[in-house]
Amino acid sequence: MKHLSLLIVLISVLGCTPTQNTRPEAESLSANQTSKVFSQPYDMRELDNGLKVIVVKTDYPGVVSLQMPIQTGSRNEVEPGKSGFAHFFEHMMFRGTENYTQEEYGAMLKEVGADQNAYTTDDYTNYHVTFINEDLELMLMLEADRFKNLKYSEAQFRTEALAVKGEYLKNSASPFSQLFETVRKNAYQEHTYRHTTMGFLEDIEDMPNQMEYSKVFFDRWYRPEKAALIVVGDVDVENTHQLIEKYFGDWERGNYVVDIPVEPPAKGSQYHHIAWDSQTLPMFGLVFRGPAADPGQKDKMAIDMLGQVYFGQNSAVYQDLVVNRQLADALFFYSPDRKDPGLIYVLARMTSAEHYPAVQEALLNTLVEARTAEPDSQKLTDIKSAARYGFANSLDNSEAIGDMLASVVQFNRDPEFINQQYEQLEAITASDVKWAANKYLVDDGRIMVTLSSDEQVSSINKDFMLSDMVAEASQPKKAMYQVTDMSNTSDIVDLNFLFNTGAAQDPEGKKGLAALTAAMITEGGSASKSIKEIQQAMLPMAAYFSSQVDKEMMSLSGRVHREKAAEYLELVLDSVLNPGFREDDFKRLKTQQINNIQTDLKQNNDEELGKEVLYQQLYKGHPYGSLNLGAVADLESITLDDVKAFYQQQLTQDRLNLGITGNLPEAQKQAMLKRITDELNAAGVKPVKIDEAPVLEGRQVTIVEKQTMPTAVSYGFPIEVNRSHPDWVALWLVRSYLGEHRNSNSFLYQRIREARGMNYGDYAYIEYFPRGMFRTQPEANLGRSEQIFQVWLRPLRSNADAHFATRTAMYEMEKLIENGLTEEQFEATRSFLSKYAGLLLKGQDRVLGYQMDSDYYGTPGFVELVSKGLDSLTLEQVNQVIRKHLQLENIHFVFITKDGEDMKSRLVNDTTSAMTYNSEKPATLLAEDEVIQDYPLNLKDADVVIKPIDEIFQ
Hints:
Blueprint: E1 43-46, E2 52-57, E3 63-70, H1 85-92, H2 102-112, E4 115-120, E5 125-132, H3 136-149, H4 154-172, H5 175-187, H6 201-205, H7 211-221, E6 228-233, H8 237-248, E7 270-275, E8 283-289, H9 299-311, H10 316-324, E9 328-334, E10 343-350, H11 356-372, H12 377-394, H13 398-412, H14 416-427, H15 430-440, E11 447-452, H16 466-474, E12 482-487, E13 492-499, H17 513-523, H18 531-538, E14 544-549, E15 554-561, H19 565-577, H20 583-601, H21 606-618, H22 632-637, H23 640-650, E16 656-662, H24 666-679, E17 699-705, E18 711-719, H25 728-739, H26 747-754, E19 762-765, E20 787-796, H27 799-819, H28 823-839, H29 844-857, H30 862-872, H31 875-885, E21 891-897, H32 900-908, H33 923-932, E22 944-948
Parallel strand pairs: 2-6, 7-11, 12-16, 17-21, 17-22
Antiparallel strand pairs: 1-2, 3-5, 3-6, 4-5, 8-10, 8-11, 9-10, 13-15, 13-16, 14-15, 18-20, 18-21, 19-20
Helix pairs in contact: 3-8, 9-15, 11-15, 11-16, 17-20, 17-23, 19-24, 25-28, 25-31, 28-30
């Protein structure tokens, strides 16, 4: 089977050769001929005996290709026991004539350096020879002689029959040959396509006994009315015709006609497994009844187009199975051009038998998509363009032109067949492709085939019905995602794609994958536009689109003016639903992420470094145990395929809450929702379970040693309280009293910063608060199942000051736990928070973000949660919460310092950390200093670990 599928071969490994020409018989090309896919001038005539002659003069000097397609192939083998005879007889055509023995014939070809061969297909047999133009008459004479005067002995016949059996056995070593043979034998019951070109083995074994039938076969089929003679090359057209008339004009016409059995309509489906005796890669295939190659009908061209759109190398399923997940090393769509209705093959060769279920699911889903959705029109345009230009590029020599014509004229002995096919291809629309899918990719006649070294394949679904799958998929899609719609009259539109996934879902050894995936979406462009093009488009809109990744949340958010919403949505939705995933963007963003860890965090931000190290230490072995940005070594090992897989498995509808606010036009909103429903994966892999934090026992210290002037301090411990907990409002009040972020009225700020001037600020938290040195208020969309209580002492001037400040914070916490808040402290803090809570929602994007956090925690809106909670709180309840959730026994401390040994010595030995001031201080403060300077932290040598900065987050 040399040729597979007309036109589409140009853009597909298993495509077919297309070919056709205009017919100017000594006429100039007309205007419309220049637009034909095959526009090479040719001269076509028919001899009185019915031989169709086509001569094409080319500009390739000296070379001539002579092709003789005979309209007999395995299709014509209607008699029982005679399958494979057309192929066998092809061999006999090289065994000599009445005028020349086989040896003499071969010697003459060798003398002129001719390159000769032949092949047999289902529909025709083609003989071809390429030579130098000075030998044109000799080659025409030799070809005419063997087509008119073929002669061979019975010994030659019987010997060649054995060679054909050897060819069959050779081919049988190929799993593909066995697969095709099995499928065709079961796909047809009446039509002669039931057997392959080689024929059935039992018929091949009987061929030595068919000497007399071979003479009948030659007499029936090797006649001029069933042949075409094609000469392409550096020839004189008229002289060539004269020579052909001279040598072929007396070839006698025949009168044999055969009735090809018509295959009845198919009913039902089949499954066949081929157990392969030797080691091989497993195969999976789905085969359907297909159309004939009739350029007067759109069916075949629509099917070829379907194959390219849904199964070509640029298709989603090919990229998924072969490129991304590498479940298969090859994926084929094979629909050969045939005179009668043929077959449509979708075949995958897998990298492991374990992949049968996944490959079957992917291919079935693609078939369902082909039957339920129309392909993108631009894709069709691109494929048509590739077909035209690929065809033109393929005809770069006389032999290629001749070979193309042979494959075309076998249908109706007219080169215009190719132009008619291309015209039909040009007319194919997206609706035609869907129509063809529903006509041919059906259950009746469907064959599922597997091939592997196993006796059977138990992991695949043998009972599916495409009709049921299509019916289910045709139902209006239901969105599996949540929508937080806070539309208002503002001209500013904010969007927030909040996915319930994040760093906690990073696979082991791939820490940082979630953050890198988010960056690839918002900073890596879409499939249709580069990030540069997107940024250029957003610049005049004053729009943006950015990402934030935490442990359980990934926020892809942006803003635009409503007048530019349509253009903006196109850019953003393409980025979210069809990310570009380009290798150069991936390398750039991965390098940036590594630099963010190595330089921005570890070298340039001691405050954030201390807080992040604290989280890492408290959550060792827990999904929260890695930095959101990841680890350097892990990032270096992450591949673009890892990013694609994370996207497919984690950024799914069932994990999405889409936030909308502002005055987004309703039509644009609905179009956005439909695109998300249609294009975003519905569900992904099962998420990693977020367990409680590891148990912290005793007081532990991590000292990070690096070149730095001050000493930064953070300490804390896990708590069971998050925003959904009944004690959260009370504990949030306690936190505010103790250390409201960047607020000079909080208690620790007053005791450490204001009273003693030791540092820039001192704060307390019960929720994750990154980027604290840059922000005065917490960001939204950092929701976590697990939280810690944390105290952050901004950098101190020395280790001694850091020691004293830590003692001060612990001393004040001890008093708070023992004594609780006073009525005055309680009321003042409650009054502050009742107003301050509203300030946290001062922008509409923050209103939206906080509402989405409330959706995550399952609580009322933030202001309502806080207001009602504060209104109902009593001092007694708050003090109970203090005693319940705050403690001093189990704490982890982190110090960032240039002298780790000195810091450790001070901590382990409880060295006095006396304070000195450059101004007078109240006696009460100095007296308190006397107590605090020796306040015991009770730290043991074994519980204090020094880590060089180079070992952190590596």
